[in-house]
């Protein structure tokens, strides 16, 4: 089994919030994931990188119950992951999507409130989340009228309002400038500092290397490397499969 969760690769002694073991996904004749294992501990930020089509989003989709694996299992906080996406919130899981995934005709505040409508403290949660991403001053604005980086902050605020224990971020830095990327990194570290486990899919390699405790690299659906950011960056297999491509872009 290609398992990235051994003691060398996961020095973090805190309990695993997410544990993926022996995961396989087959779409028709295509093996999108083969024998994938990884863990994210409470308070840990793990980066999941790899070339286009490596299987990163498929792994997220399995964790969220949107794709049924053909092999392996997923545990969240020691229990089997819910097989239905509508049970994720109760399991403490929040996810952001590639791009923005906001409701453009609603206001900023409404976009965040939709995630916590069933909570009696929804107003406080929404206000707190907007504060965390630096957007309280635009709470009443229509999201579709905001610049792209602010729309991405809204999507992050919506996830944070649910007070996740496991946060899945799908390309959160995509399309952002340096200041927004730096702010995002600070927010991610702050969220992790409060005990949330963060799994981060991202093509912005410098961002990944600066914000993550560990990095797992997928290529053609298999884990080809896992470890500390510096180790992974220097790994010849990673350079060949992925980082070389980045440099040449
Ligand atoms: N629903 C599906 N049906 C068939 N094939 C799929 C499906 N979803 C993904 N794939 C294929 O599975 C492989 C992995 O795709 P996936 O989107 O997980 O990769 P990725 O690493 O997230 O790529 P990117 O960085 O471009 O987002 C690709 O070959 C993709 O074409």
UniProtKB/TrEMBL annotation:
It holds the Pfam family BCA_ABC_TP_C. Residues 18-245 form the ABC transporter domain. The keyword Nucleotide-binding applies. One of its GO terms (molecular function) is ATP binding. The keyword Nucleotide-binding applies. PROSITE patterns: ABC_TRANSPORTER_2 (PS50893). Keywords: ATP-binding, Nucleotide-binding, Transport. This is ABC transporter ATP-binding protein. It comes from Cellulomonas fulva. The lineage of its organism: Bacteria, Bacillati, Actinomycetota, Actinomycetes, Micrococcales.
């Amino acid at each position: 089994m290609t398992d990235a969760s051994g003691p060398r690769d996961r020095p973090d002694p805190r309990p695993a919030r997410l544990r993926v073991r022996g995961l396989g996904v087959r779409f028709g004749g295509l093996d999108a994931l083969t024998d994938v294992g990884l863990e994210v501990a409470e308070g840990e930020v793990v980066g999941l990188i790899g070339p286009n089509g490596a299987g990163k989003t498929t792994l997220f989709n399995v964790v969220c119950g949107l794709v049924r694996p053909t092999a392996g299992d997923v545990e969240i906080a020691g229990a089997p992951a819910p097989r239905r996406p509508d049970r994720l919130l109760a399991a403490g899981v929040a996810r952001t999507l590639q791009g923005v995934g906001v409701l453009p005709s609603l206001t900023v505040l409404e976009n965040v409130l939709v995630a916590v409508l069933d909570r009696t403290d929804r107003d406080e949660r929404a206000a707190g989340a907007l504060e965390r991403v630096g957007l309280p001053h635009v709470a009443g604005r229509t999201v579709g009228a905001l610049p792209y980086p602010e729309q991405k902050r809204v999507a992050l605020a919506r996830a944070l309002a649910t007070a996740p224990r496991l946060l899945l971020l799908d390309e959160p830095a995509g399309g952002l400038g340096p200041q927004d990327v730096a702010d995002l990194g600070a927010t991610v570290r702050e969220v992790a500092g409060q005990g949330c486990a963060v799994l981060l899919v991202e093509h912005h390699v410098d961002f990944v290397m600066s914000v993550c405790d560990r990095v797992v690299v997928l290529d053609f659906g298999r884990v080809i490397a896992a470890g500390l950011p510096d180790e992974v960056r220097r790994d010849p297999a990673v350079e060949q499969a992925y980082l070389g491509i980045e440099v040449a872009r």
